[in-house]
Structure prediction request, 413 residues.
Amino acid sequence: MNATHRVAGSLVVVAGALGGCFSASSGGNAPDASFVFQDSGVSFDAPVESGPPGTFTSGMGATLVLGQPTLQSSNTPNCTASTMATPIGVKLIGGALYVAAESDHRVLIWDSLPTHDGQAADRVLGQPTLGTGNKATECAANAGGGLGGNTLDYPADVASDGTVLAVLDHGNNRLLVFNSIPTSGNGPMASYALNESGLTAGTSGGCSPSATSLELEQPQGVAMAAGKLVVADTGNNRTLVWSPIPGSSNPFAPENVLLGQTSDTSCTAVTPVTSQTQSSPAGVWTDGTRLAVADTQNNRVLIWTAFPTTANQAPSLVLGPALTGAGSLNSPAAVTSNGTQLIVADTSNNRVLVWNAFPTTSAQAPEAVLGQASLTTTASGGGATGLSKPSGLLLNAGHLWVSDTNSNRVVYY
Prediction:
């Protein structure tokens, strides 16, 4: 089936972009290897800062790019180890950088943090090879064949708890799980698919027919931390939480907490909008104690300052509706935090907003913007300072990696 990512009603891809500065100890254009995060029971979505929080100033420029030869390039991706088409999720797992290149139907992996522009990926999930430039055959959906445990259709995000690897297979309406994080080779086979009878038994998506037969509909965001698995079930207008994370011996385990809907069989976007409803949530972040959800079509971010434990629990605060002008949101598609700062990809405003202190009130305004010269502009841009439909965010050791989706690149600040 065709995957449709509706951002602001018309965009068919979501993007991730943000800019950031360096920690005081870093210098030059390359990531500081001394601050590489090594997983130890949490994914990058938990606070992973090894150094001080980043210093982010409005309009600052990126210093490194992946997917393009230079920051000024805008080449059409052609399916090679150094190109990517509409990257979405970007994560750091076990010291390796993962990028979900959605329209290439693959996840690219750099075994260590890249250090120069256009650096080629080392490995790939979802395809048998990294490609030689034949996009039609080497970057086809489901590797040009049928649904399998080593194929992907518009992958949107990845996450890990330090042991297992989860890949959100958006177009196939499923979550693939590897019982151990693959460390070598291309196109490895997943161990199982959550709530599926097998690796070749996909679903057409849609609302769950019953509480014991959970289905996903074009899910777009996933996070793992402190024994919790959080999935933004985008097409079903809800967020699902499992705790503990289901294993291969129990892939049909029902979720423990349902947010955005009143039951598993209710999946439509509810009107009028309340603090408890969700419409096409795309991005999720958690440190196991707090939870943030980018409620994309409602133009807001929902925050639980204490992790929700009951069905349809209302958030503690809501960013977006209470803000006007500089702080208003337009289809935010990603959210992340280092435990102190909060970063939001304000996708259809072509910018990333920075809160230097984790918000405590719904009216709290951001302090800085990335991708724009100021908080008052929203035009799509490129080069070192512009962004086009940002969506995937990776905050690590005072630095930011951004999936600048519509520019077919990931940028580093």
